[in-house]
Amino acid sequence: MSPEEAVTLVSQAIWVIILMVSVLIVPSLIVGLVVAIFQAVTQVNEQTLSFLPRLLVTLLSIILAGHWLLQEISDLFLFIFDAIPTKVG
After folding, report:
1. From 8, 38, 56, 65, which residue has the greatest number of CB atoms within 10 Å?
2. Is the dihedral of CA 65, 66, 69, 70 positive or negative?
3. Within 10 A of 26 (CB to CB), how many other CB atoms are there?
4. Of residues 70, 65, 35, 3, the one with CA closest to residue 11
5. Which residues contact 68 (CB under 8 A, 6 or more apart)?
6. What is the C-alpha separation between 59 and 10, in angstroms, rounded?
7. Do residues 44 and 18 touch, judged by C-beta distance below 8 A?
8. In which band, very low, low, confident or very high, does the pLDDT at 8 lie, cut at 50, 70 and 90?
9. Closest of 2, 8, 14 to residue 88, by C-alpha
10. Model confidence over 21-78: pLDDT tens digits?
11. How many CB atoms lie within 10 A of CB 59?
12. pLDDT for position 58
């Protein structure tokens, strides 16, 4: 395996990780920001108030994007497994 092929493989893996994390984390961050602004405006300092909306948004993200996330990770693994015979030996 040449260094260029290894870099390509690692860059594809990192790209899939970035996509998966952004789909799951970014909506939760946005909801957390909205709840934090609401807490600052109303001066409600309850720590558990932001937990439930973020949890629900994360679960909703998993429900809505779960199929796509599994397809992306499966495609990456299939690419890696298909490339093994050509790269080794």
Report:
1. 65
2. negative
3. 12
4. 3
5. 23
6. 29
7. no
8. confident
9. 2
10. 999 999 999 999 999 899 889 888 877 788 899 999 999 999 999 999 999 999 999 9
11. 12
12. 93
Q: CA-to-CA distance for 54 and 29, rounded, in angstroms?
A: 8
User: How far apart are alpha carbons 48 and 54 in whole angstroms?
Assistant: 10
Taking the C-alpha atoms of residue 43 and residue 87, their distance in angstroms, rounded to an integer, is 60
pTM greater than 0.70 (yes/no):
yes
Q: Answer with the residue of higher pLDDT: 3 or 37.
A: 37
Residue 28: partners with Cβ closer than 8 Å, 6 or more residues away: 54, 57, 58, 61
Residue where the block lists tokens 């602004």: 37
The torsion angles phi and psi of 37, rounded to 5 degrees, stand at -65, -40
Tell which phi-psi region holds residue 43, choosing left (phi > 0), alpha (psi between -120 and 50) or beta: left
Contact 33, 53 (CB under 8 A): no
